[in-house]
Specification:
With 99 residues, this protein is an all-beta fold. Helices cover 0% and strands 51% of the residues. The chain contains no helices and eight strands. A five-stranded mixed barrel has the order 4-5-6-8-7. A three-stranded antiparallel beta sheet has the order 2-1-3, with no helix packed on it. The model has no long low-confidence stretch (mean pLDDT 89).
């Protein structure tokens, strides 16, 4: 999993601004491991995801960065469980729990 760092802050996407023209934005690979911070199940999704419901969405506190990421879970999880990044697909980060 790649994150971007600019002026001691971390981002999941590369920050962009015309003010950054002479300032370095660094890229760093992290493990993608984290802890479930919050979790919910979606039973009435937007039209494009109806065929996938119900599905689980969680907020993950990343282990290697001061970032939280909203993610689709590949199985049910509980707050406090350890998880890891598996892929980025259809605009969503996907995580799985450690077994």
């Amino acid at each position: 999993m790649i994150i971007y760092e600019y002026k001691n802050k971390s981002y999941l996407t590369k920050p962009f601004s015309f003010n950054f023209k002479n300032e370095p934005i660094s890229e760093r690979e992290i493990s993608g491991e984290g802890t479930v911070y919050s979790v919910t199940s979606i039973y009435v999704p937007p039209a494009e995801f109806v065929q996938e419901s119900p599905y689980t969405v969680a907020i993950i506190q990343l282990k290697d960065a001061a970032l939280k990421v909203t993610a689709r879970m590949e199985e049910p999880v509980q707050i406090g469980e350890s998880v890891y990044y598996t892929k980025f697909e259809n605009g969503a980060y996907h995580f799985k729990k450690f077994v």
